[in-house]
Amino acid sequence: MNIAKLIINKMFIINRRGVADHENTETKNDVAGSGNRPGRVDRIRVLAMMGSVLGSKPKELPVALVVLDQPAELATGETFAVGEKIQETLVSNPALPFVWHVVDSEGKARKGMDNRDFYGAVVLPVDLSTGLLSFTTSSPIHPIVKLITNEGMSTQASTDVTQALGQALKMINEELSQQLLGQIGQQKEHIPVETAKAFVAPMNVQEEAMHSPGVNNASGNAPALLTQIMWIGSLVTGIVLFLAGKKVVDAGSRRWTVSALQAIVGLVIVIFSSGFTIWMALFPHFREG
Question: What is the pLDDT of residues 125-136, one digit of tens each?
């Protein structure tokens, strides 16, 4: 089986204006921004948004890998094990921001996601090697590879897992398609249209999401939105307390007294905001009437 040897030996490479005329115009531009130069308002807006976006790049996300594939035996006595090759390709790829955990069953992978151990899982089916070998016959079988994501852990991370693994599996599929078409083309002068269509995607990738976010959760983006609101609220509160304190000090009050009052007011606001947030999270039935 030349096609089998080629797939075994050659497998899957998965390889990012001007100066103002007078002082008033200059001051206005400095506050609101002009042309390509950001003003104070723009800078404040950028700072206000930083809290919710810094550190959002995924890194070392635990993902489960289930290899159920049973190697197929060739007529030459050699074994054809595509699952092992895919496992080696995924685990050894430094471009993927994952920490792989190889488990021996889909049930264990799902239980791990129930326990918040994994952000997702890839399941290679039992008939992976056998199905790919069937492409040399008149009745090809498309093995189904499962890509399961755990949206309950983090919607953003779940999206990252789906995009990264989806792209990796797509490239593997393309490599398999090219190799299969090349080998079959050498053996046959003409390939039927229906047969050629089957070679476009030898593996079918089935995506599934577990623990999807419920209603009133901003499609799973509630934590990011809450962080944004808290960050902007803290910035506004700090500015208000600073300006109010400055006016009181200018009016003749002692600075240490004003500082103490600022701290107390800020603490009260934090306690109230935190308590309200916890109440909203733990007792949703009050909000729903």
Answer: 999 988 888 877
Tokens standing for 252?
A: 């003749």
For residues 271 and 273, what is the distance between their CA atoms, to the nearest angstrom? 6
Chain center to CA of 115: 19
**Domain limits for position 283:** 218-287
* Residue whose tokens read 């500015």: 239
Q: Is 204 left (phi over 0), alpha (psi -120 to 50) or beta?
A: beta
| Nearest one of 210, 204, 129, 198 to 170, comparing CA atoms | 204
Strands (E) in 151-254, as ranges, are: 204-210
pLDDT of residue 45: 54
- Last residue of some domain: 210, 230, 263? 210
Total domains in the chain come to 2
Read off the pLDDT of residues 69-92 as tens digits, 9 standing for 90 and up. 998 887 777 888 889 999 999 999
Give the CATH number of the domain where residue 109 resides: 3.40.1710
User: Which tokens hold the place of 234?
Assistant: 């803290």
